[in-house]
Design brief:
It is a single chain. This protein is mostly helical. 73% of the residues lie in helices and 8% in strands. Helix 1 packs across helix 5 and helix 2 crosses helix 3.
Length: 183
């Protein structure tokens, strides 16, 4: 073998080795690019899912807050309407105390109080009803005025039992029913 053929063989061997290294480098570069692209796609997909989840959570929170606000506004409007209705009811009761039927109502109340608490009952009412109650309740009448819309307050002489038939108390006792009617 001659020196030239040996050099040629070494050169061919070196070129083959260089091609092999270059091919491995191209393959490694392609693998790294594919790995990078796969990771980027995974990160993008994960961030997309996280963003969608955050948007859905934010949307749900805003929707819940809007529903809560709407319910609160509806409740407040209903309460204003009910309060207005109760105020109107009080006004109607006040007007009723000026009607001719009111005297008969007071008389019935005094009779009910006498039946419930006994004949020795003490009756009191509004300052405006003083003369009417003095006629209806006679000796059982207590002239000290009560701060009520109308009706009577009856007590036993020893104050151990009390029957409040004032319009205020009757309305308070039936307020839930009135609220249902007004709602």
């Amino acid at each position: 073998m001659s020196l030239e053929s040996l050099v040629e063989e070494i050169r061919q061997h070196a070129e083959a080795e260089l091609r092999e290294i270059a091919d491995r480098q191209v393959a490694e570069r392609a693998r790294l690019v594919a790995e990078r692209d796969r990771r980027v796609a995974e990160v993008r997909a994960a961030s997309q899912r996280a963003t969608e989840a955050e948007v859905a959570r934010e949307r749900a929170q805003r929707l819940a807050a809007a529903k809560l606000k709407a319910r609160k506004m509806l409740y407040e409007a209903r309460e204003r309407r009910i309060e207005s209705g109760l105020k109107e009811t009080r006004t109607l009761l006040k007007e009723y105390t000026a009607s001719s039927k009111y005297a008969a109502t007071l008389k019935r109340m005094v009779e009910v109080a006498g039946d419930a608490l006994g004949p020795q009952v003490v009756i009191s009412g509004r300052r405006e009803d003083k003369s009417l109650l003095a006629r209806v309740a006679r000796r059982a009448f207590d002239p000290s005025p009560q701060p009520i819309l109308g009706g009577i307050i009856a007590e036993t002489p020893d104050k151990s039992r009390r029957l409040n038939l004032s319009f205020d108390e009757l309305l308070r006792l039936r307020e839930d029913e009135v609220r249902e009617l007004l709602a």
